[in-house]
Design brief:
By secondary structure, this protein is α/β, with parallel strands linked by helices. The protein has 7 domains: about 1-100, MutS, DNA mismatch repair protein, domain I (3-Layer(aba) Sandwich); about 120-250, 2-Layer Sandwich (Nucleotidyltransferase, domain 5), CATH 3.30.420; about 285-390 and about 530-555, MutS, DNA mismatch repair protein, Chain A, domain 3; about 425-495, MutS, DNA mismatch repair protein, Chain A, domain 3 (Orthogonal Bundle); about 560-765, Rossmann fold, CATH 3.40.50.300; about 780-810, no CATH class; about 820-860, no CATH class. The relative contact order is 0.06.
């Protein structure tokens, strides 16, 4: 227990799994936590006189079952192993912490989700801005950036790290800017110094400076990146040769999508349970690397025309050559997660079975390389040239490793026959011992002429030859007599002694030899880490582009035209997610949208609830986004002038935990848009201003639209869906504003939603009709219609300037009153009350009048 407490003191905040023989044991508070999370028995053990300590444990071979449960529960887990063989020591077995597993630092397959990265993030708060770095130890990806708090918050949202590190004294600052949604860990202040971080990075990459990574002028980014490598030291992850580069996240290359936009456009996940995201629709990747890369592409759309066209050219090439797609698909299926397998080589965690998988993957890369090289598409030819099937190491694995090798090295049977002569001899001895002994016995019978000679074994002196006394004179001189029996003599020979030594140590030697040969192969494999990492990146890219082809073919997408213009012209566009969720046989109503900076910069969209205004806004943004990640789009034609930022203010939600109302959230998001928009931005406003009173809302919406229209530099293309029909007046005053509405048809007092965008404003919201569809009681629907007619009449008389509240509370019956219900009894009660002269009423008369009213109601 003294040894346990010594280990626990090194990582007091972690659950310590303490190896004792064949078990991992936890004690005290750790045992209570483990028993609860893992569902294992909590027991107690004696710890000195009159002391007991809680204990819970599980067999060591079940680590892969239990460890993920602890990590997923948000626990840091320190693994303490026995560092020497208990047979080799008479003292207390030497133990040490070999690994600290945390949610952000894990290479265990059971913890990782193979279709997404497992990022560890580090944040450093500088004087003027913030540095951030991301590291996935399971793939070797290492990225860094710096910028303002909004930019860092956006990156945290896009990368979704499993754990975030920051300085010990900065918790309040971190939560103020990034909230409490992340699993976090605090490091000492000295880690966050330029000297410490630079030294750690230079030591790892073995370079003289950081200029080659393009981050030498980003001090906060360097400190954030250095803190991650320091954390790997703390968690005992020192074998990290697969982290070969540090990449700068180049903000200027990608479209800016803030966290509101990623969430409201439902790019990665749906806001509704059971709903589908855009990623769900377009992710048809085959390999885990492809799935991870596609997720990254989704939140980092390109904004340079050439790389977008390069992707689109490949997709179109596959479209025109379906045979090539069919040939590539089965090869991609063989590849598996090469990126994570090769990372396991660096950390010394690769299993024999994974080495075989690596061989299969490298074998599948050969035909992929040939197919790409033989194509007429330059991008594919480039992929073909760069793919390296690593034939030397692939052939060596083929020669040395059994194709059905086990998962664990200590199971044996890893190395093929013919690789090592000593190993083959040992196996012959171990697996065919009886045959070998029979062979010696037969040979010696023939040589000596002793037909009754037999070879046996006992624990006293091992293998021996037994000869009956009648043949004693035929025994060769070199045999050594060991035991005399009544009717026989027992002898040993040099050959038998050597064989005995071999057979008794054979199994142990086989295991030792196989382990050594396997480790030599893994060491040779480690030289191929950079090449195989590059291969996995190329394969992932190919996989993503093939995914786009499958989606486009299935859903009838077309190639968009991408250029540097300031126009978005989508003809008959569709919402990629909604069209997949339509009832069988029901067609999606497509719509066209034209936006440019000169003639139609802002479109005001009015129309009833449920008509499809929000869907139209979102589909426009999604089509632009799909086009700029290099995917075909759901439309008849689309001309997209590259967009640099997509902003959305869609839907309303309170942020109660921060004390912000719906309206406050709306205004925060709107302010962010207005402060960051440019002439290439696309802005979507849906129902802006509905979090406050009608006239406040109209005034703010008007002022915002006016600001966007009149901005001297940033004529941002804007779609503005609203219920405020008063905003239709803006078209007359501002030349680049156009009114559209999502049309409906009224037939026999019923509304049919046509979901078609047409020119001109709309006069009605049909909110009462939607209330009826929702199952509102008929009496309320009827009353609402009455109030609406009276309000409209008054409003026409008084004009827009008269406050609605004044109308609603005027004496003309607009006060919502229970006396206005169509009920003769209530009307009679009203008349009784009106007749009473309250000023001259005595208390007794009042009680009598109340009794009369009760009789009217009860009839008694």
């Amino acid at each position: 227990m003294k040894q346990y407490f010594e280990m626990k003191g090194k990582h007091p905040d972690a659950v310590l799994l303490f190896r004792v023989g064949d078990f991992y044991e936890t004690y005290s508070e750790d045992a209570v936590i483990s028993a609860e999370i893992l569902g294992i028995t909590l027991t107690r053990r004696a710890n000195g006189v009159a002391q007991h300590v809680e204990m819970a444990g599980f067999p060591h071979h079940a680590l892969d079952t239990y460890l993920p449960k602890l990590v997923r529960a948000g626990k840091r887990v320190a693994i303490c192993e026995q560092l020497e063989d208990p047979k080799m020591t008479k003292k207390l077995v030497k133990r040490g912490i070999t690994e600290l597993v945390t949610p952000g630092v894990s290479i265990n397959d059971n913890i990782l989700n193979h279709r997404e990265n497992n990022f560890l993030a580090g944040v450093h708060f500088g004087k003027n801005n913030c540095g951030i770095a991301f590291l996935d130890i399971s793939t070797g990806e290492f990225l860094t950036a710096e910028g303002d708090f909004d930019y860092v918050d956006k990156l945290l949202g896009n990368f979704s790290p499993k754990e975030v590190l920051f300085e010990k004294t900065k918790r309040k600052l971190f939560e103020e800017h990034f909230g409490t949604r992340f699993f976090t860990f605090e490091l000492d202040d000295w880690v966050y110094t330029s000297e410490a971080a630079t030294d750690r990075l230079l030591k790892h990459f073995e370079t003289k400076n950081l200029k080659g990574f393009g981050i030498h002028q980003m001090p906060n980014a360097i400190i954030a990146a250095g803190s991650l490598l320091h954390y790997l030291d703390i968690t005992q992850h020192t074998q990290i040769s697969h982290i070969t580069a540090l990449s700068r996240i180049e903000e200027e290359r990608y479209v800016r999508l803030d966290k509101f936009t990623v969430r409201s456009l439902e790019l990665l996940s749906s806001m509704n349970e059971g709903g589908k995201s855009l990623l769900d629709v377009i992710d048809r990747t085959t390999s885990p690397m492809g799935a991870r890369m596609l997720k990254r592409w989704m939140v980092f759309p390109l904004k340079d025309v050439k790389p977008i066209d390069d992707r689109l050219n490949v997709v179109e090439y596959f479209f025109r050559h379906p045979g090539m797609e069919e040939a590539l698909e089965p090869q991609l299926e063989l590849i598996g997660d090469v990126e994570r397998i090769i990372s396991k080589v660096a950390v010394g965690r690769i299993s024999p079975r994974e080495v075989v998988q690596l061989k299969v993957a490298l074998g599948a890369m050969e035909p992929i390389k040939q197919l790409c090289a033989a194509s007429e598409e330059p991008v594919l030819q480039q992929i073909g040239e760069q793919l390296n099937p690593c034939t030397i190491i692939r052939d060596r694995i083929e020669r040395e490793i059994n194709p059905d090798a086990p998962t664990l090295v200590n199971r044996g049977g890893i190395i093929r026959k013919g690789v090592n002569g000593e190993l083959d001899d040992l196996r012959d001895i171990s697996y065919s011992g009886k045959d070998y002994l029979m062979h010696i016995q037969q040979r010696e019978c023939e040589r000596t002429g002793i037909s009754s000679l037999k070879i046996s074994y006992n624990n006293v002196f091992g293998y021996y030859i037994e000869v009956r006394n009648t043949h004693k004179d035929k025994v060769p001189e070199e045999w050594i007599r060991k035991q005399t029996l009544v009717s026989a003599e027992r002898y040993i020979t040099q050959e038998l002694k050597e064989y005995e030594e071999k057979i008794l140590g054979a199994e142990e030697k086989i295991l030792s030899l196989e382990t050594r040969l396997f480790n030599e192969l893994v060491l040779a494999l480690s030289e191929y880490i950079p090449a195989i990492q590059h291969n996995s990146s190329l394969i992932a890219r190919l996989d993503c582009l093939l995914s786009f082809v499958k989606v486009a073919r299935e859903n009838k997408y077309i190639r968009p035209q991408i250029d540097e213009s300031l126009e978005i012209d989508i003809h008959e566009g569709r919402h990629p997610v909604i069209e997949k969720q339509m009832a069988p046989g029901e067609a999606y109503i497509a719509n066209s949208v034209l936006l440019n900076n000169d003639t139609q910069q802002i479109i005001m969209i009015t129309g009833p609830n449920m008509a499809g205004k929000s869907a139209l806004l979102r589909q426009t943004a999604l089509i632009v986004l799909l086009a700029q990640i290099g995917c075909f789009v759901p439309a008849e034609s689309a001309k997209i002038g590259v967009v640099d930022k997509i902003f959305t203010r869609v839907g309303a939600s309170d942020n109660i935990s921060l004390g912000e109302s719906t309206f406050m959230v709306e205004m925060n998001e709107a302010a962010d848009i207005l402060n960051n928009m440019s002439e290439r931005s696309l802005i979507l406003f849906d129902e802006l201003g509905r979090g406050t009173s009608t006239y406040d809302g109209i005034s703010i919406a008007w002022a915002i639209v006016e600001h966007i229209h009149e901005h001297p530099k940033a004529r941002a293309k804007t779609l503005f869906a609203t219920h405020y029909h008063e905003l239709n007046e803006m078209e007359r005053t501002y030349k680049r504003i156009a009114n559209y509405n999502v049309s409906v048809k009224e037939v026999d007092n019923k509304v049919i939603f046509l979901r078609k965008l047409v020119r001109g404003g709309s006069e009605h919201s049909f909110g009462i009709h939607v209330a009826k569809l929702a199952g509102m009681p008929q009496s309320i629907v009827s009353r609402a219609n009455q109030i609406l007619k009276q309000l409209e009449t008054e409003n026409r008389q008084s004009g827009i300037s008269k406050p609605t509240m004044e109308i609603a509370t005027s004496r003309s019956g607009m006060q919502l009153s229970f006396f206005q219900l169509d009920d003769p009894v209530l009307s009679q009660i009203r008349d009784e009350i009106i007749k009473v002269d309250i000023n001259n009423l005595t208390p007794m008369e009042a009680l009598n009048k109340l009794n009369e009213i009760r009789k009217i109601i009860t009839g008694k």
